[in-house]
Amino acid sequence: MKALSLKQPFAELVVSGKKTIELRKWKTNFRGKFFVHASKIPDKKFMKKLGFENLPTGVIVGTAKIIEVKEYKNESEHQKDKNKHLANSFWGKYGFVLKNPKRIKPIPAKGKLNFWESGINLKN
Known about the structure:
By secondary structure, this protein is α+β, with helices and mostly antiparallel strands. The chain has one domain: Hypothetical protein (Archaeosine Trna-guanine Transglycosylase, Chain: A, domain 4). It is about 20% helix and about 40% strand. It is built from four helices and six strands, in the order βαββαβααββ.
């Protein structure tokens, strides 16, 4: 199954359902279920800002499903979804719209850029 690496605390926010759009500077044609991988190096600034002290890193922490990719053409469009992506336009103009987040028992894995094949299949 494909996986996408996100820095903590963003991986946590996705699997907990608090972040329903993942911003990227690139678009994708991929739609469907994927693993949410927590990168080895967290974003310490955002960890502190959001009140997280210790979150798992270097592991797959859950799954989610991409159902759509939005393209934000201007700052106004971007700001309308701020409560869904929890970021600013610096992080990208493409929003991967996510559904069905699910936390799983952490699985150690090395992350990569873009979507990558995890070599892991879940039974369900």
